[in-house]
Amino acid sequence: MLELPFTEAEVQAALMDMNGDKAPGPDGFTLSFWQSCWDFKGGVEDLGDFRPISLLGGLYKLLAKVLANRLKKVIGRVVFPDQNAFVMGRQILDASLIANEVIDAWNKKGEKGLISKFSVMVNGVPVGFFSSSKGLHQGDLLSPYLFVMGMEVLSVLIRRAVEEGFISGCKIQRGKGRAVHIAHLLFADDTIVFCEGKKEHLTNLSWILFWFEAASGLRINLAKSEIIPIGEVEEVEEMAVSGWDGVEEKVRRRLALSKRQYISKDGRITLIKSTMTSMPVYQMSLFRMPNSVARRLEKLQRDFLWGGGNLEWKAHLVKWEVVCGDKEKGGLGIRKLTLLNKVLLGKWIWRFACDKEALWKQVLLVKYGQEDFGWRTKKVVGAFGVGVWKEILKEAGWCWENLAFKVGKGNKIRFWIDLWCGDIVLSQRFSHLFILATHRNATIEEMWDQNFGRGWNLRFIRDFNDWELDMVGNLLQVLRRHRITWEEDSVFWKGGGNWQFRVKEAYSRLDRPLEVVFPKNKIWVERVPTKIMFFAWEATWGKILTLDRLQKRGWQLPNRCFLCACEEENVNHILIHCTVVRVL
Fold first, then answer.
1. How far apart are CA 95 and CA 81, in angstroms?
2. 547: Cβ–Cβ under 8 A, 6 or more apart, which residues?
3. From residue 75, how far is each of 148, 183, 351 by CA, in Å?
């Protein structure tokens, strides 16, 4: 596939997909110039003939982009499922979920083991670990895929060692059912190895790493490598909270670097959205954030927005609940951490229903068992341990309320109970007919006429009365638009873009907006200074610090307008009714 001749469409697609703002090459042009001025010509013989002027510095980037686009289509079939980096459909969190479930399985069975974490170092010494006349520079489009294939050597060595019994992984099994063996996980150059706590196993593992270094020219970064024992863990709840201390410390350091007094309110809002909310996203995507941690992080956000903190007092003029609302409803669009955490955990429910053969899904199916034709796992029972799936399953309710089925073969969708035809399940839409159904848990495939394939074969426990015939007619009218196909059954997200789960859309569904009519288009106006718009937003909510509001906050002040000296000072008076203000 990599050796096939380049096509015009392929080269153009690669160029248009590249970042046009990258530094210019020796010709002085950025890639955006060639994207805008691209012009094909006839008589193409090599890559340089695809444009009238040579790209010079951009030519190699274009070549690497075309090859990378080809490679990423097939790399998933080349590397084992243990590798979770740079492979379409796999994520770094997949390895994190599997690792937590492996540790949980060991703890629940009372077994002891070791986790070895390794990081590979390239050119680890100043003079260079190996000499090379040709190579790829850092950030090259091809380098991630080539490195993943290089790490596949280590994956194969570990797999062979497990097969021969030199090291052991973790066997995950439910009863006497199918088992899955997890010996190692990779994310690019980071590797986690699971083995029993035996000296000979660690010795064998060290030999594997030595052979890998000799074969690949790469080195194990011992400074970043560690061995973690697995066994009984005391004070789990306290450790769960302390595990978020690193995130909180990162947020505090980021705030310390930001000169808040020199940043406008709009800049503070942007920084909160882009940095402070995104810092804990990785952990929130897998673990339940304790309420105490969420409160502390949101306090840091509030103090950064309004000012103040432990050493000074500043008035927080608008409730945080209002600030976190959409701008259409009078808020500033800042996301609530607990609600964002809920959405990110719910995304796993969607992925479980959509992914077919992913390794992390197979681990969960083997460990907990499946129900509803494999769309879900069974409920997690017993001690919690360190497994995370139990917490994720708590979000299954609202998530499945927003999912519906797309009918293919119909062998994994229940005719009466599952949502596949309209906005209401048929058992509720035609409740009387559901009571008369012969098989209430029948699949769509079982209700389809298998002999001729021309329609539905509905079966009931008795003949219908005259007054029931209209119900049957209505049901058949609904079913006329649906037929089974040769495709596999699937799920889709109701109302989402392209029927896919989107965090933003799911968040808006769970968020309960304030029932207010807010003049957003009159407050947030283009080309108006941010400071003025923010003041108008505060004034619309009646939250600016006028004398009447200072009195409510405990200040002992006489309430008299300083401009007209006639009326008490409040928001409406100082901005609208004051005679002096009207003149101004």
1. 10
2. 557, 558, 559, 560, 561, 568, 569, 570
3. 9, 21, 21
Please indicate, yes or no, whether the overall pTM of this predicted structure exceeds 0.85. Answer: no
- Three-state DSSP state, 350: helix
Q: CB–CB of 430/471 below 8 Å? A: yes
**What single DSSP character describes residue 407?**
-
Q: Which helix (H) or strand (E) holds 269?
A: helix 265-271
How distant is the alpha carbon of residue 438 from its chain centre?
43
Residue 403 has a pLDDT of 94
Asked if 339 contacts 511 with a C-beta cutoff of 8 angstroms, the reply is yes
CB atoms closer than 10 angstroms to residue 187: 21
- In 373-513 the beta strands, taken as DSSP E runs, fall at 376-377, 403-406, 490-493
Classified as helix, coil or strand, 26 is: coil
Residues of the chain with pLDDT below 50 are 40-41, 51-56, 125-134
pLDDT of amino acid 427: 94
Partnered with residue 121 across adjacent β-strands are: 219
CA of 211: how far to CAs of 93, 114, 153, 157, 310, in Å?
29, 21, 10, 9, 55
* Dihedral Cα 537, 538, 542, 547, nearest 10 deg: -150
Which pLDDT value is given to residue 377? 92
Q: By the 8 A CB rule, do 335 and 511 touch?
A: no
pLDDT in tens, 118-152: 776 655 543 333 344 445 555 677 778 888 888 88
Candidate CATH numbers 3.30.70.270, 3.40.30.10, 3.40.50.970, 3.40.50.11750; the one for domain 92-130+137-232: 3.30.70.270
Contact assessment for residue 376 and residue 354, using Cβ atoms and an 8 Å cutoff: no
Domain boundaries, the chain: 8-77, 92-130+137-232, 242-342, 375-504, 520-583
**What is the identity of the amino acid at 437?**
A
- Cβ distance 460 to 437 under 8 Å? yes
Q: How distant, in Å, are the alpha carbons of 123, 205, 299, 314, 474 from that of 272?
A: 38, 45, 12, 18, 53
Concatenate the DSSP letters of all residues of 457-469 into one string: ---BSSPPPGGGH
The tokens describing 517, both together, are 């009519």
